[in-house]
Every structure is written in C-alpha cells, then in structure tokens.
Amino acid sequence: MPITDRTLRLEQDLRDALQAITDAQTRDLVRAWAIAWDEIAPDLTAALLEQLVAGEQISRAQLLRSTRLRAALAVVADQLQDLAAASQVRIVGDLQAVVDTAGAAQASVIDSQLPVNFMSPDDLATWSRVDADQITAIVARATEQITSLHKPLAPAAYDVVRRELIRGVAAGSNPRETARRMVRRAERVGFNGGLTRALVISRTETLDAHREAARVGRMAHADVLDGWTWLARLDARTCPSCWAQHGTVRPVDEQGPNDHQQGRCTAVPTTKSWADLGIDIEEPPSLLPDAATRFAALSPAAQREVLGPARHAAWARGEFPMDAWSVRRTTDGWRDSYGVAPAPPSGGRSSRTAA
Length: 355
What we know:
By secondary structure, the chain is mainly α. It has two domains: 5-220, no CATH class; 225-355, no CATH class. 58% of the residues lie in helices and 6% in strands. It is built from twelve helices and five strands. The protein has helices at 5-52, 60-64, 67-92, 95-111, 121-124, 132-150, 153-165, 175-219, 240-245, 291-297, 300-307, 309-316, and strands at residues 225-231, 249-250, 266-271, 326-329, 337-340. The chain has a three-stranded antiparallel β-sheet with strand order 2-1-3. Strands 4-5 form a two-stranded antiparallel ribbon. Helix 3 packs antiparallel against helix 6 (132-150). The model has no long low-confidence stretch (mean pLDDT 90).
C-alpha cells in the first residue's frame, strides 16, 4: 500500500479545494455579521446614552423599561434571526459541490498507489455510477444537521447581547464612553458569539459532508482497499490528538477522520499490498510522513506550542508517549470524536485509550 508523491499531491489538491470553499464561507459570514452590527450599534448606543445621562445611577429595571432600548433590542433579535437563516442557506449551497468533489477524487487517489494502468478509465469514472440516492442522502443529512444546529443560534446570541447590555449600568462621569463600552462588550461577547458558532457549524458540517462523500467514493473500490489512513497536517497548528492519530489505518467503511470540530485531517484510501492484489512487481515504499520523526524534528518551542507546557513536560520525561495523546470523546448533539488527552500527573505514565 504505497502512498506516493502523487497520492500526497492529490490529497493536498483536495484539501486546497475544500479550504477555498470554507474560506469563502468564512468571509461571507464575517462580512454579513459586520454589516448587520454596523446597522444596529448606533441605535443601541443612543438608547443607552439616553438613559445614562438621565441621572447619576440607573437600575437594570429602569434600563429595560426604556422604549427606545426595547425597540433597538427587537432589531437585534430580527437581525440575528436573519443572519442565522442566511448563514444556513450559505453553507447548504456549497454541499453538492463539496460532495461531488470529494467523492469523485477517491478513484484517482487509489490509482496513485497502484501500477500504471492498473485501473481502467471506467474504474476512474466510478463516482458517476454511484447510486444517485446515496449522493442525495449525504446532502440531505448534512442539510438537516445544519438546520438543526442553526435553530438555537439566534436566541442564544440575543440572550447574551441583552445580558451584556444591562450588566454594570452605572454611568460614572462619562455616560457616552460608558454606553460605547457596553455596546462593544455586547458585540464581542454576544453578537459575535453567534458568528463564532455559525463559523464552527459551517466548517464542521462542510467537512463532515466531504468525509461521508469520500467514504461512499472509496466503497466503490473496497475490493482493492486495505482501509483508509488518517492523514494530519504535521505542523505546530495541529493538536496532539491528530498528531497521534496520523498514520493509523481504519476500516474502509468507517467514516472519518472523526477529529475535533473544525479539524483539518483527511482520510486517504489505502490499497492492499501489491502482492495481495496479485501484482508481481516489487512494491515501492510508502512516502507517508512519520509523525514521531516529524515531531522530534520540531523546535522545542514548536513542540510546546503543540502540546502545551504540562503535556510537553510529561512527554519530555517519557511519561506521555505520542500514542497516549488522543482519546475518544462523546458529546451530546454531535458525533463521537477524538480529542486531546490530559497530561498524566507527575511521575505517572499515560497509555493510549483511544479505540
């Protein structure tokens, strides 16, 4: 099962295509949220200022009785509902392209690990012969999940905005600055909290649709596959769990990689050995990078950036080997995923618990 330079290039091209889609989603969502807040902020500031200049002290109850503030908060609620609905539409609009790109790429990635002309042109065109209902079902499931996750987004963000606006309402000596500070805090903690959640939904659900399409695509070639290999980006931005999972081989029908939310890992369909496929040619070595070797080559500062101080110290003491860095976690309302294991207590030793 030789992962070749071509395999890695094809996987990088697939990553780049997916990155372009998620980056465009991010730009569009951030722009929409910023425009909406620019429309809201002046009215919120004016409504707060109106109350703050009325007296030296003002209670939360008095603030909430302000007709002008209630009207401004109603606009906030409407804007958040509109933003949540628009972001849902924006994300769903990319699903078909994501699914088609991921599914169609699998045959070429498999072909890159086999002798020249082992796969026929028909083999390379298998995505077009995948049951259309399977492809439709992937898009439908992702759409349903995205819709479900967006429902609480607007109410939750609104609640935080409202709470932040009435927290600490004493005017002090500068009501205008106090009003601006309250509005900035409401934007940062509440309004943009909704944006952050929308961005997590966007990236995570788009990636998961991509991975399910890849699973369906490789299943069309299950007879030549040994499974799929977890491929992580081995750099300082990659979490310890993904470093540990890199290079592990999973069953061909298993969906994944089930890394954390917004994870960047990919599943490389991995062929059986050439000997097992009846190919009487010497098989070249796999060029898959080795995680332990790559990590050891990082600077101590980069290693600490990956692991954090406590985990790095435990690793340096020999108490936290790489195969102990990842654990499987269950999260309500979301799929199981692999996350970072805690550092062992000083003098202890972790052993791998991931399945």
